[in-house]
Structure to design on (301 residues):
């Protein structure tokens, strides 16, 4: 399965992250010594279900690294246009491609095993769209100061994930609706309004469960959609505001320190006496045995 990484967003002077990007792509903002997008590429490198990475909005001049082949495409100006272009390239690479991952470049705490979990979980059924959500308690346990926007449903409060899985046919149908939904992805109530005022009212008054809301949205758009409930906050923790950037910078530094400390601890760990004895025995047993002396008696005449 191919992963389409959306990295074309450039903060404008009136936007909160402009001071950090200086007119360049948000994906290039430094986090713990790497461009933010490089952490995402590292996670995709480790994911066994990812075949190719299609990076949109950046070029090979950035010196990015990935264990999977990278295809570079220019920014198309709108997110939906970027997704459509990415899907087309995926089909060029493999005409039998059925599904693609759509991944934001601003989720630097993403891990490879999380990518594989999404693919494994989604492919148990055959839907058109798998949209991830993170329960509020899961997000706030991992990132208590994230200040994410939550949709309050009847059975839970959730925020949206920034890595989802779609069928390739999604880019050829209902484009106007998708354009409107993506354009309002930061406002769940505005999205609900696009799907119908009755849906907006029911969500605003917390009459719908997550399953009912997903079913209502699928019916209105005319697709088969499925909500994936994440038990990991990382795929849903993006960088939209300065305090979220600083939060993830501090988090990634702590993670790096833990890894470094663990590696040092492993390197300094002394070899136990038992292991030393085992190695000595192995050396002794591996020595060649002395040649056996054979005496041949002369045959009496």
């Amino acid at each position: 399965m191919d992963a389409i990484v959306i990295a074309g967003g450039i903060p404008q002077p009136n936007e909160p992250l402009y001071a950090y990007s200086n007119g360049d792509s948000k994906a290039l903002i430094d986090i713990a010594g790497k461009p933010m997008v490089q952490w995402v590429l590292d996670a995709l490198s480790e994911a066994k279900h990812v075949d190719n990475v299609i990076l949109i909005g950046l070029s090979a001049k950035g010196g990015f690294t990935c264990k999977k082949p990278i295809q570079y495409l220019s920014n198309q100006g709108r997110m939906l246009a970027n997704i459509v272009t990415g899907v087309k390239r995926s089909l060029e690479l493999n005409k039998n491609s059925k599904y693609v991952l759509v991944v934001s470049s601003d989720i630097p705490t993403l891990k490879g095993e999380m990518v594989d979990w999404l693919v494994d979980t989604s492919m148990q059924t055959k839907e058109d769209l798998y949209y991830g959500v993170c329960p509020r308690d899961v997000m706030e346990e991992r990132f208590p100061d994230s200040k994410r926007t939550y949709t309050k449903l009847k059975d839970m409060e959730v925020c949206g994930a920034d890595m989802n899985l779609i069928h390739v046919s999604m880019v050829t149908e209902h484009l106007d609706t998708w354009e409107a939904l993506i354009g309002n992805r930061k406002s769940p109530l505005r999205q609900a309004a696009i799907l119908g005022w009755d849906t907006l009212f029911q969500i605003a008054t917390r009459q719908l469960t997550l399953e009912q809301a997903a079913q209502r949205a699928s019916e209105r758009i005319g697709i088969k959609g499925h909500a994936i409930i994440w038990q990991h906050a990382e795929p849903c923790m993006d960088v939209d505001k300065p305090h979220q950037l600083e939060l993830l910078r501090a988090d990634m530094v702590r993670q790096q320190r833990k890894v470094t400390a663990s590696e040092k601890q492993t390197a300094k760990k002394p070899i136990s006496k038992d292991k030393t004895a085992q190695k000595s025995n192995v050396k002794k047993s591996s020595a060649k045995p002395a040649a056996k002396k054979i005496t041949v008696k002369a045959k009496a005449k």
Observations:
- The longest helix spans residues 242-268.
